[in-house]
What does this fold into?
Amino acid sequence: MLELIKNNGVSKLNWKKNMKFILLGVFALILLLNTFTIVSAGYRGVVLQLGAVSEKVFDEGIHVKIPFIERVVPIEVRVQKTESPATAASKDLQNVTTTVAVNFHLDPVTVHRLYQNVGMDYQHRIIEPAISESLKATTAKYTADELISKRSDVSQQIKELLAKKLSVYNIILDEINITEFKFSEEYNKAIEQKQVAEQQALKSKLDLERIKIEKEQTITQAEAAAEALRLQKQEVTPELIRLREIEAQMKAIEKWDGKMPTTTGGALPFLNIK
It folds into this structure.
């Protein structure tokens, strides 16, 4: 009996020792896992020390951190895209609706400051309001017609203004794309009526020019005919008249069949005895 009790005591002692080693092993494993961290490609690791943002920023790859003291927050620094529908007013107070697609990326060097000042919801907090404000500030400088005819200039001004606003928060603007500007139904009808009126005015102008040209042609032809007649009158002489009379008589003789008329009222119509 004493020997059995003694064996049981030894077994309990060994179990406690084994449990201690197991706990130490688990703790060592947890410590090891919390010592190393991996930052994926296209990301940067913002280091937090007991919740406070550190100046350290981990690049891609494996890194060593202080376990239970430091925590790494991965933040994407690749090019991202966001689309924001916006409504603004033109210089002539026409409502303008469009969608602006923006490509941007976070500055890898200062990404920790963005996390500290803004957090992870930077698209809704910073980018979308900046897009709306930049669009409104730019469209207010142009009329509705100019927004269409000078679209490239409008897009460039929006891009410059938006890039300036985003750079304050260490966000780098890559490119923007603006869909077509849409206006109110009343404005579209007014534009259509204006185009119809311009087409009618152009047609009337062309008709007027055609009539003017035809009139000038008629006048020119009449003047040419009058000038020709005037020149002919200047060239008419008694000798020319006598020659034309002889030519007419000769043509009449050529047509005569040799028969004398049975009734005559005077001299023969085609002979001049003199």
Observations:
- The CA atoms of residues 182 and 188 lie 9 Å apart.
- The chain has three domains: 12-76, 80-183, 197-254.
- The first helix runs from residue 2 to 33.
